[in-house]
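Notebook B, p. 112. Complex prediction, attempt 2.
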Amino acid sequence: MRTDLKILVVEPEPDKARDIIDALMNGGWSDVTVIGSTGALVRTLSKQDPDIILIDLQNPDRDTLEHLSLVSNAKSRPVAMFVDHTDEAMTQAAISSGLSAYVVNGLQKDRIKPVLETAIARFRMIEKMQSELDAAKRALSDRKTIDRAKGLLMRARQISEEDAYGLLRKTAMDQGRKVIDVAGALVTAADLLQ
Amino acid sequence: MKMTQVRCGYLPLVDCAPLIIARELKFAAEEGLDLTLAKQPSWSALRDQLALGKIDFAHMLSPLPIAMSLGLGGMPGAIDALMVLSVNGTVIGVSDDLSTKMLATGWRNGFDDPRATAAAIFSATSTPLRIGIPFPFSMHRMLLEHWLSDVPAYQNGEVEIITIPPPQMANAVRDGILDMFCVGEPWGSVAVQQSGAVLVLPGASIWQFAPEKVLGARHDWVEQNRDVCFAMIRAIFRAAKWLSQAENIPLAVEILARSQHLDLPDHAIDPALGGNIPTSINEAPRRTERLLEFHNGAANFPWRSQASWIADHISRWHDLDPKTSRATAACCFRSDLYREALAPMGVDMPGASEKVEGAMQHPLAVASTKGQMILGPDVFFDGAIFDFGTQAAMKK
């Protein structure tokens, strides 16, 4: 687990904040910033660009965080939430819903580290799934472009599909470009000439 | 009669009055409901509690069930709006500093002129304008957007909209974090008292009939607990009707101030319920029509056209297909259940569940089951008309 994460803690009560910092330091995380109020939150978030945010489930500032995370160009980041450990059902439900709410069970110092690690790991997993999904979508659209380019070549030069692909690949190699780029250029040019 | 236990989440704002009245004056008990009101620290927390089944009903910002049903925000889920709890009720205010600069441009605060006020605001500010709202999915943000969308500074991105919890709005204005805000009562009046803010417009001056809060519940739960939903709709309908009678207002203020649910003094509750609001610290309260409406003009009816109007804003923000969003939103606003719940009471119902939003300049008699329904006015300040029946909303 990386310990160079930038952590932002939103906690107005100094005593609680100190406990959290202690627990994070013990866990090997040293880049920790604490803020107390909403006004500071808006400014700090853009300046600090934290990797993870910790906030009490009962803190009204959660609405400010919600807004910031909805802004289209906002960096997606895990938000861990503290909740009274009496509310076990809520905690479990929030964790199993697997969304932005990563709940730290109570404010017990010895529990912060493992739960935080789980939260970060889970966030990374969802992020990875998202990027795999994006890659799959991209591959699909690439294939469509290459198929169109092959079709254009087959019609224009009366050649087979295999030869059309060979021609695309040879052109790409000769010019030091990717097959998809050559195919994309051909499709664009064909659209322009129509 | 065996009482059914139900829990309803709320945020301590004056517009949760129908819930408190339904409980305290036993309208809920008379419908067989043992209603517990559960105060929530934020809209995010309220949403999570509802989505996770910790509460059955919730006092929600009208766009929130739609946003959740569209899969947006930290905890999405299929949420229905069973009825509208209140119409209007927001106020727009500026900092002491900004109001002084606005006055220097020759502007005078009539508390009723969105065009002149916008012109004064933008000629008085040179830096980006920072406006506070209570939540990203809120009528507050939609009203601001409708009001300012034609202003060049807004189009050029010189307006920054920030979410600030309503109880912190006054401090944020005083500390210079915000230049302006749009918030529900009592927090506008509190900002006037605590930080010298000046209220410049009621939300109703932008749209005269804006659905502000709705009663939300999980779609699956609603289908399995229809009778409980019907009882809750009836109890709140009766509470809202009671609140609409002027002679009940002094008692309502007393009940709300004494109830442990709000934890607000009576002078914070009085302006919104009484319709007389002080716009600055040294001025007498101003009489304001339709400042906050709980019942009149079929205020509780969840119009599917209101849902479509809300959906269009969300589609723009999140780049969604507007047609699909409107369809999802219209299904969230359960005018079908509302009709079914109130049929046994013989309540007058409109003939249609959609209306042309913004078309009524004056109160207008419309087709209804008993022929006694009067709607409106519901115009937008710029005369915009939204006709979702033809799927072609237009801005005049």
